[in-house]
Amino acid sequence: MKRILVLFLSLTLLMLSGCWDLLIIEDLALALAMGIDQHPEDPEKFIFTVTNPTFSETAVDETRKIAVEAYSLANAFFNAQQQRNRLLVLGQVSTILFSEEAARSGLMHEVMRQVDQQRDMNPNVKIVVVQGSSAQEALYLEPVEEARVAQHLNDLLEQNFNSGFMPRITGSRYWFRYSTPGLDPVVPVIELTGGEEKKGIQIVGLGAFCPDGKLGGVLSNQQAVVGMLLSGQHRRTRIFSQLNIGGVRRKTSYFVKNAKSRVDTEIVNNRAKIAIQLDLAVDVVNIDWGVEVLDRNVEEVIETALANEIQGTLKNKIVTIKNWGADSLGLGQYVRIQNHKWFEQIDWNEEFGKSDIAVQVNVSVKRIGTLIKPNY
Amino acid sequence: MDAKRYGFSDFQWFAVLICLTLGGGIITLPRTVAEVAGRDAWLSLLIAGVFTWGLAVLIWLLCRKFPNRTLPEFCILVLGKPLGILVSVLYALYAFTAAGETLRIFVELIKTWVLIWTPASVFVLAILVAAVYISRLGATTLARLMEIITLLTVLVFLIWLVPVGEFNLLNLRPVGSEGLVAIAKGGQESVFAFLGFDVMLVLFPFIRNRRNILRVTLLALTVVTLLYAGNVILTYGVLGVEHTLLQQWPLMNYLRVGSLPFIQRVDTIVLFFWTAQILAVVAIQYFAGTYILASLTRHHYHDLWSLLCWPIIYLVAIGPGTLSQVQAIGAGISRWGLVGVIGLVVLLLLVANVRRLDERREEEKE
Q: Which of A90, A137, A282, A351 has its CA 20 to 30 A from that of B122?
């Protein structure tokens, strides 16, 4: 028995050398970002751009960028691999960029469905739409602050999420929103900045997608923030504004400390009637107004002005997304929950545009700045 | 059998039940139940849990009549030798096939998500070698291993919570909207996931504290029910019911959403630990099957049966060619297994009562 045990243990020593097909990270082409553009001539194909670090001391550039044309994502990986001397792996892709044309035509949705089927793709990959330029141009950009555009873009999106300016939209969130009745996907939209010599990236809004997976339009940053407040995704949000107080525009900014929303729905004459209530607690950082801010009346004036402004923005947003037919606020979910039987019988995509939506915003100012009289 | 010396403590019996029941069902449960009960699947699981309680009580009522006999022994006593042997052999075969099916589902999962190019036989043999080794060493070793695996499972369920940041309660509302019929049907569908605890029929004589058996069994089943329901709630909350329904392996898709600063792929960590859980299922079922065969041969040759029977599990695990076949066979084993277990327990209870067979009284008199 002892001999058998010794023989068995000796054989296990053979395994100590590790896997025979082990992969060393330096020998891989780790894709960090991918871009998808419409093909200029062939509607069946698209342009696929991928960027990855070179990891070689003798490499001329820190990153390698490849653009290929393909008819599917798997075909694109195959074509890109033919130009790389190292194994292209997808597990580290942090961002996928789509051109606005690709988003509007439905190509983006088609590709996202294919991404969902890639086993090694990270479902937490961030998604963005590039406005005014191609995804390829964005990936070939050389930002001033960061040598790797993929890293720069990832940090930019993460920072804006943490600042409460833009929701974090990942692959899994896109799929979830697309599959869920009464909730449509949204994706951040970026633009390249710096005139002819494009050097930077700027987030310019939030793309609202229709139920068919096509981009309906782009919401402003302000509208995006209001949507986040409503859906509880706000994070240390700071809002900048020119408040209309007594017909005069007062420059101000404020932190949103707390946001509570309530959505009540009912069916009246076979139409959804939706009442949205949003209660905010804010901390005014600065205001351009020559009053004593410790006066309760001043607080009340600011509360009313802020409530009116946010209410206006929210109403505008609702009108806009109703026109596009994109329920990016997920109001349909509340209708489904509160009027389940009615919801089962109708097509919410059609009913959303016909629904009657009322908005009520209440603001409570907790404190105003650090000066007694801001305009001294 | 000297249960006092070689038997299971309360926690060990609890661990055996947890390991055996949790096994493979949890991996696909969120989809299979949602297909019937929609977003109310978690209610179906609670109903299935209550049903399982009832079945556990029936098994306990039967086993306590023969506290020192294992399944083949009391089967022969109650049904007569030919029928008793036939039923016992069938149960042993059921245990082997259930082990093989669980193993194959896990292999499918591994080959889909992690080790795509590794042959299935490598996984099956690697787990079988360990399972045969453990099972051959007897109930005490088995029970100690189950204790360790149960403690590991606690860690796994902490990792399970990583994607919880994406949880959206709206996905689970409105509660009860699918209707009572759908919820009940979902309960019927999900009760198969609890199969395994019927191993009490074989292991009852090993349990030291007879007074606590029912309490510990029900506690273990309650924990499993809550874990199953919690798993479904988390999966729907994160992926949404509609997207869950699209997934072949919803649990993997759920876990892949989570990431930690120091662990990017939470799913692979869970799979790593879950291997122990699958090993536990195979080892317990294998022990139960071989122990039945050993009992039929007058408690001789358990070593020999342990060394001989593994090809059955291997063939069940390797046999099906496609995933659809694996799922069809799995559904068949679960359905017929449940029907068989309920039928057997009810039949044995009825015949034992009619024939006034109750060794407990004799034991008490002595």
A: A90
Q: What is the CA radius of gyration of chain A?
A: 26
Residue A67 lies in a domain: yes
Q: What is the pLDDT of residue A163?
A: 87
Q: At what angle do helices B250-257 and B266-296 cross, to 10 degrees?
A: 140
pLDDT of B184-220, one tens digit each? 999 988 888 888 899 999 999 999 888 899 999 999 9
Give the mutation candidate from B256, B259, B260, B267 for the A interface (greatest A CB count, under 10 A): B256
Based on the domain organization, do A43 and A111 belong to the same domain? Answer: yes
What is the pLDDT averaged over residues B223-244? 94
**Domain check: are A59 and A88 in the same one?**
yes
Q: Is it true that the peptide bond before B72 is cis, omega within 30 degrees of 0?
A: no
CA dist B66 to B78, B89, B205, Å?
Answer: 10, 19, 8
- According to DSSP, the residues that pair with A68 across neighbouring strands are A48
Residue A187 and residue A273 in one domain: no
For the segment A71-99, what is each residue's pLDDT rounded down to a tens digit? 999 999 999 999 888 888 888 899 999 99
Confidence of residue B363 (pLDDT cuts 50, 70, 90): low
Q: How many structural domains is chain A composed of? A: 2
Nearest to B238 by CA among B312, B291, B348, B160: B160
| End position of a domain, from candidates A163, A195, A219 | A219
Nearest CA distance, A81 vs chain B (angstrom): 19
**In CATH, what number is assigned to the domain containing residue A330?**
3.30.300.210
Give a yes or no: residue A89 inside a domain.
yes
Which range marks the domain in which residue A122 is found?
Answer: 25-219
For β-strands A271-287 and A356-368, DSSP reports them as parallel
Nearest residue of chain A to residue B117 (CA atoms)? A21
Q: Where are the alpha helices (DSSP H) in A144-257?
A: 149-162, 171-179, 221-231
Total of domains in chain B: 1
Start-to-end C-alpha separation, chain A:
93
Confidence of residue B157 (pLDDT cuts 50, 70, 90): confident
Report DSSP state, residue B300: -
Which positions 30-89 of A are in contact with B (Cβ < 8 Å)? none
Chain CA centroid to CA B245, Å: 24
Minimum CA–CA partner of B245 in chain A? A179
Share of chain A above pLDDT 70, in %: 97
Question: Do A364 and A226 reside in the same domain of the chain?
Answer: yes
Residue A18: inside a domain: no
Of A166, A195, A219, the position where a domain reaches its end is A219
Same domain, A53 and A94: yes
HSE of A174, CA atoms in CB hemisphere, 13 A: 32
Question: Smallest CA–CA separation between B11 and chain A, in Å?
Answer: 32
Among A21, A179, A181, the residue with its CB nearest the CB of B246 is A179
Is there a single domain that holds both residue A89 and residue A210? Answer: yes
**pLDDT value at position B117?**
87
Any chain B CB within 8 A of the CB of A124?
A: yes
The residue range of the domain holding B102 is 3-365
Q: What is the ipTM of this complex?
A: 0.87
Q: What CATH number has the domain bearing residue B126?
A: 1.20.1740.10
Residues A352, A264 share a domain: yes
Whether residue B243 and residue A175 make contact (CB cut-off 8 A), yes or no, is: yes
Contact B217, B16 (CB under 8 A): no
Of residues B170, B246, B265, nearest to A333 (C-beta): B170
Q: Is A152 in the B-facing interface, judged by CB distances under 8 Å? A: no
Q: How far is CA B59 from the centre of its chain?
A: 15
The confidence band for A275, taking pLDDT boundaries of 50, 70 and 90, is very high
